[in-house]
Specification:
Elements (H helix, E strand, L loop, with lengths): L2 H4 E3 L5 E7 L2 E7 L5 E6 L13 H12 L3 E6 H6 L4 H13 L15 H25 L5 E3 L3
InterPro entries: RAP
Protein name: RAP domain protein
Pfam family, one: RAP
């Protein structure tokens, strides 16, 4: 489960999940005059077994940036490293939001070996299982509440 599924943001500015803007879908869009948006990059946003963004993602990122959107991205393998620690995830997102938005040219992540990719995918599966078990145990939806304002 990534930040898109487990984040319930409470912000001073309104936001939308899965905002459609022109021909693009934006994962999380902060609705204000600054055009802040977030993309949650899963394994399918990269070429197989790499940290290299697909050309479609690069094009979308460049076009939205050039149209005035300030883009922040959450890479799946960075998110997985935080495990089930909600405090760490809140802090990660807060720090990410304090940094400048990504430049118009989307750069690839550091290269990883196939073994590292497999280990990250296994970690993602383990985190999803742990969060599912926690939800079922508590019988409550799992959410991450934070104030980014």
């Amino acid at each position: 489960m990534g930040p898109r599924e487990e984040t319930k943001k409470e912000t001073a500015a309104p936001y939308c999940s899965f905002l459609r803007w022109g021909c693009f879908w934006i994962d999380i869009g902060e609705i204000d005059d600054r055009r802040q948006c977030w993309f949650v990059d899963g394994p399918s946003d990269f070429y197989s077994s790499t940290n290299e963004y697909t050309e479609a993602n690069k094009l979308q990122h460049r076009i939205l940036s050039e149209l005035g959107w300030n883009i922040r991205r959450v890479r799946w393998n960075d998110w997985v490293q935080l495990g089930t620690d909600m405090d760490a995830k809140v802090e990660y997102l807060r720090k990410l939001r304090e940094r400048p938005p990504w430049p118009a040219i989307l750069t690839d992540g550091p290269s990883s070996s196939r073994q590292e990719m497999v280990a990250n995918l296994r970690s993602a599966r383990d985190v999803q299982r742990a969060l599912k078990e926690r939800r079922e145990k508590n019988r409550q939806p799992h959410s991450l509440v934070m104030n980014l304002g």
